[in-house]
Amino acid sequence: MWEIFSYYGMRTLLVYYMTKQLLFSQQHASMVYGVYIATFYFTPILGGIVSDRWLGRKRSVIIGAVIMSFGHFLMASESMLYFALAAIAIGNGLFLPSLPSQIDDLYAKDDPRRGSAYNFYYVGINVGGLLAPLVCGTLGELYGWHYGFGAAGVGMLAGLAIYTLGGRWLPPERPKVKDLAPAQRMPFAAMKQRILTLAAVAVCVMVFRGAYEQTGNTIALWADVGLDRNAGDFVIPMTWFQSLNPFLVIFMTPVLVAMWTKQASRGREPAPAKKMALGAFGVSLAFLLLALVDASAQGHAHWVWLAAFFVLFTAGELFILPIGLSLFARLAPAGYAATSIAAWYFASFGGNLLAGALGTLWSAMGHAAFFAVMAGVAALAGTLLRLLDPAVTRAETMNGQASDERSRIPSYTD
């Protein structure tokens, strides 16, 4: 939560800071912003390798958090902007893949709560994303940019303190790749199959994110030009609709987790790829709703329809994104836990690029047609995920067998 708070808090202010304080041109500021966001999702690949091969996950989290905090505080100096952004990106590369890769080890292999744990992790992400603009954005706008950046740095230090003080409850560090005994290493053929399965899932998620990431782009534009935002005498600010998604994540997650835990105890919980496919189809249904509303609206559509969109959209999101993160953690080859999580975040990098390319169609076609295309993109991702279900199930079965075998082999610490 605190890491996301610091990241989104700084990101909320960044473009305003560059254009209003540093007097960058809009083109220059947008270029810096775009390169920074792309780098933020790219550095975890390198950080995951460093974590798995040399530092270990706990030290990577601590070192990454320290570097990120340093970067946030460097934002107080106008001349250090690029050094500050580089520090935050480098620290994130170590932090981001190393933290969630520890969640799976908190549970026994047969614990039905393992998959749902990532939904609660996802709640933390959304709480941080919800609070960041309210706290950092308000401080930056009303009291000065550096107060907002400073609050982001303090948030990162708070997360570091919680992680360090709670260290005794964390799972033991997994052996690094170089410390694995030959008998503990996965056969090359099995590892290849596992990697190919995860790569196929990552491609599906990239396609899904092409539609999913439109909420901050074309959906925001539609809220401005295609929506009747009047609620009596009050006009709902268009930015408020963006807060619906994290609010719904926070309140819907416990309900879904309770349902899945009950299903798991009865042996009826859907397989991960089936859940993810359902999530993609749910998001497709949400976009189809907007397509029908926009096509039939006489003038502006009522704001209730956008609220209904976010209900369907968020439900679908909870079936695919935290489930996919959990899947990448569980299927990580021995010694490559952080690298596997980094690959999941790299899918976000590719998905954001695709979303930007698809967003260019907004001005080239009618709004209803655009929403229909996004429904088709999400449905395509759902279809591909449903076709991948047998491969994912085989990989999970092999993973369970491999875990049983490794549990009978003394670890390198023994």
Automatic annotation (TrEMBL):
GO terms for molecular function: peptide transmembrane transporter activity. Pfam families: PTR2 (PF00854). The keyword Transmembrane applies. It is a multi-pass membrane protein. GO terms for biological process: oligopeptide transport. The chain crosses the membrane at residues 31-50, 59-75, 81-99, 120-140, 146-166, 195-212, 234-257, 278-297, 303-329, 341-362, 368-388. It is found in: Cell membrane; Membrane. It comes from the Bacteria. One of its GO terms (cellular component) is plasma membrane. Belongs to the major facilitator superfamily. Proton-dependent oligopeptide transporter (POT/PTR) (TC 2.A.17) family. This is MFS transporter. It comes from Noviluteimonas gilva.
